[in-house]
């Protein structure tokens, strides 16, 4: 089952207000105020223009509500729905000026998150037959991390760390700064609480052999091709969680997952996923 429980409103309320303030500037929506009568009402539909998976509808619709509490929404196909081009996912109606003012911010969010969910769905489906899961990374758009990671979950993926305080992930630069892998592992002793997970990145089988002498919770196998990954997974032999990362794109997932690795992390999901094409169309009697 995919997770379509959105983050609490308080987590993304500030994002919506910031985005609206950026669009409104100091003078407000000049075009709508000049061209649309103050009493005009609108009934609009959010239409899908290409096949995909919907994510971000709660945030998009809350954007309209922030502009005007008079705006009413009707959800036809909620987050997690796989929809075809031409599908109406929601109906938005209320003061025409307010609907027009909120249109771009709402669609930007919905298109962005639906695009992430759509490519994650493809990647997760390719990994599933091999028993592997697909995870996102911290390579998110600044300010959008909570909702972009939500979109990954809607797509059937899982979340890696949300931030630097979410767990210990020792990467190559930490190892270099600390003076080597053994020095890092020595420093970890006695400094980590029992609730904190520890993962260490290695980029060679030689480093992995060192790590396996003092196992941690998980190993990040960085920039290894499928063949080397298969060797690494065999070396680990189930003693810790194995994760592969480094330049993996959705179309490569099946080959990497066949190595037997537990998790594939793809920064691509949040830094390169194309937005899903959606539009807001007015309805006339």
Automatic annotation (TrEMBL):
<keyword id="KW-0808">Transferase</keyword>
<comment type="similarity">
    <text>Belongs to the NadC/ModD family.</text>
</comment>
<dbReference type="InterPro" id="IPR022412">
    <property type="entry name" value="Quinolinate_PRibosylTrfase_N"/>
</dbReference>
<comment type="subunit">
    <text>Hexamer formed by 3 homodimers.</text>
</comment>
<dbReference type="InterPro" id="IPR037128">
    <property type="entry name" value="Quinolinate_PRibosylTase_N_sf"/>
</dbReference>
<keyword id="KW-0328">Glycosyltransferase</keyword>
<comment type="pathway">
    <text>Cofactor biosynthesis; NAD(+) biosynthesis; nicotinate D-ribonucleotide from quinolinate: step 1/1.</text>
</comment>
<dbReference type="Pfam" id="PF01729">
    <property type="entry name" value="QRPTase_C"/>
</dbReference>
<dbReference type="GO" id="GO:0034213">
    <property type="term" value="P:quinolinate catabolic process"/>
</dbReference>
<dbReference type="InterPro" id="IPR004393">
    <property type="entry name" value="NadC"/>
</dbReference>
<protein>
    <recommendedName>
        <fullName>Probable nicotinate-nucleotide pyrophosphorylase [carboxylating]</fullName>
        <ecNumber>2.4.2.19</ecNumber>
    </recommendedName>
</protein>
<dbReference type="InterPro" id="IPR002638">
    <property type="entry name" value="Quinolinate_PRibosylTrfase_C"/>
</dbReference>
<feature type="domain" description="Quinolinate phosphoribosyl transferase C-terminal">
    <location>
        <begin position="116"/>
        <end position="281"/>
    </location>
</feature>
<dbReference type="Pfam" id="PF02749">
    <property type="entry name" value="QRPTase_N"/>
</dbReference>
<keyword id="KW-0662">Pyridine nucleotide biosynthesis</keyword>
<dbReference type="InterPro" id="IPR013785">
    <property type="entry name" value="Aldolase_TIM"/>
</dbReference>
<dbReference type="InterPro" id="IPR027277">
    <property type="entry name" value="NadC/ModD"/>
</dbReference>
<dbReference type="GO" id="GO:0004514">
    <property type="term" value="F:nicotinate-nucleotide diphosphorylase (carboxylating) activity"/>
</dbReference>
<dbReference type="GO" id="GO:0005737">
    <property type="term" value="C:cytoplasm"/>
</dbReference>
<comment type="function">
    <text>Involved in the catabolism of quinolinic acid (QA).</text>
</comment>
<dbReference type="GO" id="GO:0009435">
    <property type="term" value="P:NAD+ biosynthetic process"/>
</dbReference>
<dbReference type="InterPro" id="IPR036068">
    <property type="entry name" value="Nicotinate_pribotase-like_C"/>
</dbReference>
<feature type="domain" description="Quinolinate phosphoribosyl transferase N-terminal">
    <location>
        <begin position="29"/>
        <end position="114"/>
    </location>
</feature>
């Amino acid at each position: 089952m995919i997770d379509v429980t959105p983050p609490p409103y308080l987590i993304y309320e500030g994002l919506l207000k910031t985005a609206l303030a950026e669009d409104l500037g100091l003078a407000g929506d000049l075009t709508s105020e000049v061209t649309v009568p103050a009493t005009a009402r609108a009934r609009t539909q959010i239409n899908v223009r290409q096949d995909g998976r919907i994510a971000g509808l709660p945030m998009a619709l809350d954007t309209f509500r922030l502009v005007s509490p008079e705006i009413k929404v009707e959800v036809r196909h909620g987050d997690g729905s796989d929809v075809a081009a031409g599908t109406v996912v929601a109906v938005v109606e209320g003061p025409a000026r307010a609907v027009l003012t909120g249109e771009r911010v709402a669609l930007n969010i919905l298109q962005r998150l639906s695009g992430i969910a759509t490519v994650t769905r493809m990647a997760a489906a390719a990994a599933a037959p091999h028993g592997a899961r697909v995870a996102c990374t911290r390579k998110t758009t600044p300010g959008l991390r909570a909702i972009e990671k939500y979109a990954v979950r809607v797509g059937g993926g899982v979340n890696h760390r949300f931030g630097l305080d979410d767990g210990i992930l020792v990467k190559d630069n930490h190892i270099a700064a600390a003076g080597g892998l053994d020095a890092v592992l020595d420093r970890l002793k006695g400094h980590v609480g029992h609730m904190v997970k520890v993962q260490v990145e290695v980029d060679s089988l030689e480093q992995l052999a060192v790590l396996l002498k003092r196992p941690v919770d998980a190993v990040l196998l960085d920039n290894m091709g499928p063949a080397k990954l298969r060797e690494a997974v065999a070396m680990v032999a189930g003693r810790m969680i194995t994760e592969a990362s480094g330049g993996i794109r959705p179309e490569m997932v099946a080959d990497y997952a066949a190595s037997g690795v537990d998790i594939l992390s793809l920064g691509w999901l949040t830094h390169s996923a194309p937005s899903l094409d959606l539009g807001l169309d007015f309805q006339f009697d």
